[in-house]
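Internal QA ticket QA-208
Title: Verify multi-chain structure generation after dependency bump
Assignee: T.L.

Test input:
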Amino acid sequence: MNKTLRLGAAGIAMFAALGMSSVAHADTASADATAEVLDSLVLNNVAALDFGTMVISGGGVVTLAADGTAAGGLTCTDTDIVCSGTTSVAGFTVEGTNNKAVTIVLPTTAIELRHPDYTAATATEHAIVLDTFTASDNGAGGPEVTLDGAGDASFEVGGTITVDGTEAPGVFQGDFEVTVEYS
Amino acid sequence: MAFRGKSKLKYLGWALAAFAGSGASIPASAQGDLLVAPTRVILDGSRGTEVILSNIGSEEATYRIGLELRRMLENGRLVPIERTEANAVEEAALGMIRYAPRRITLPPGQPQAVRLAARPGADLPDGEYRVHMSFKAIPKAREVSSQPQTDQSVSIQLIPIYGVTIPIIVRHGRVEAQVAITQPSIVQGEDGPELAMSISRAGDSSAYGELRVTKAGVADPIVQLTGLAIYPEIEARTVRVRLTPEQASALNGQLRIEYREMPEAGGGLLAAVDTVLN
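Actual output:
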């Protein structure tokens, strides 16, 4: 699969069909060089999923929506939960093939976030459930994002945490998986 | 085994590193950001190939490389399938792919090749076998944040484990697919008009290519969707493309819809239809 090298195109890996000196020219040369040009796929995490800080005196939910419907995505309306601090939805950028649609896979089951003092016996006060993950391009058929004519796209991911009011103060930790699926 | 020579690999590493290092355009990035190339692998015969993984983040990162199963739904989405739910074809696919390494730690800007090859058994039926290779950053061990909280507040620390998957396709023996475009129409979607159609597929092979809607006298395609795959597990795939107002107004009169192989695969015509929408 030999092609004329398009200089300056982002995210292209060059294979070794050409000599060292040709690549040294790659920044400026306009002459044709022959190389195997491969499509590449880049995924960057540009923003964290951040619920800020909460003071909890009763049960309720806090939602970070990825669809841009609320400022910072935050919905924190239960009277027993006071939200403060900066919040953000998780942000990702994708670079790849122009005009290609890619599937985004988010967790479909709940994630348990744990307090450093977590033990099975104290799970009520030392665990918070995070679920209902949503992506900004959450079409009827499931999350999918289409790369634009330059091969770029971005998407956001949000979620919902549910508390029962007994949570101990502290930092609750957990991780969640986000995958971009090329077809 | 026909993996590429070592000198070539080294050289490629140099080229990629130079690319990443010189890229003022690469934004501030998080630990675990990654580049994978190529984005699709087709193995036929015993010759192996390789996929490049590059750390484009700003910190050292460890990546796990794995084989996973996906099935395509009729709407084109890929859904994860647990290994325990694998059918015979998927099990065979998992069993025949060899790859290494499975875990790579890379400093920023550093690429490495993952070598892979297929070892189909002698009595394997002809067909297309597919797995999806995943590249995921493993989060670093977290700081222990057990310092006593001075106030009564709760905060949450979420670590995203993010990555990509690319299809690894093994074509064994003679496989074919026939493809046809049916029912093109303009429908109202959630965010406005969408071009909708169905692409039917028959045979043992997947189809992969570029969908273009063109009009006589208009130089550029009005709608273009590349890298459109239809895998053997589905016999028809619906395609919906959100239209800009300009695209929607241009889609009148006699139109031609073509599904072609990707240009680098020869650009051969897979299916076409001449139609008038609305």
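Spot checks passed. Chain A is about 5% helix and 45% strand.
Status: verified.
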